[in-house]
Amino acid sequence: MSGSIDAGLETDHELVAIVAVAENGVIGRDGEMPWHLPEDLKHFKQVTTGHPVIMGRVTYESILEGLGEPLPGRTTVVLTSRDLETPENVVTASDLEEALEAADRAAEKRHDGADRIFVAGGATVYEQLLPAVDRLIVTEVHDSPEGDAYFPTWDREAWREVSRDERDGFAFVEYVRR
């Protein structure tokens, strides 16, 4: 599988967006998730470990603040126009093409030929890469909190639900592009 965008950006790997989103589309508030779901964080770790993860600077900085370090066991590709001081498992990219190329290289060299590249937010990164995404892994949060960051509107008819795991207050749902 390979994701591609009309602008000619491509990857040889399955491009997967992973997101926790509330019923009202909220994904964040003040640079953080407006809910506390430890099971979702465990799910994110389990699914993304061993794969490159593309994210924006604000998302990266919120992870640093929360964990005290970048995501372990993953190469993080940070989309940013700023110069960031980064450890070995973090790469910066100034545009989508550079981010996908860095993630492709990391998948081949650092992750033993990992077959997936994950997109982990924030809102602008999801909006830019959603047209190229092959699969969505969504934590549907059964709540409508206040927020200032939203997942982009997506055509559900273009996606087929392939799994659903209902939990107390949320569900893990996976979709593939039709």
UniProtKB/TrEMBL annotation:
Similarity section: Belongs to the dihydrofolate reductase family.
Full protein name: dihydrofolate reductase
Keyword line: NADP, One-carbon metabolism, Oxidoreductase
Domain DHFR: 14-178
Keyword S-adenosyl-L-methionine listed: no
One annotated GO molecular function: dihydrofolate reductase activity
Organism: Natribaculum luteum
Pathway: Cofactor biosynthesis; tetrahydrofolate biosynthesis; 5,6,7,8-tetrahydrofolate from 7,8-dihydrofolate: step 1/1
Gene Ontology annotations of biological process type: one-carbon metabolic process
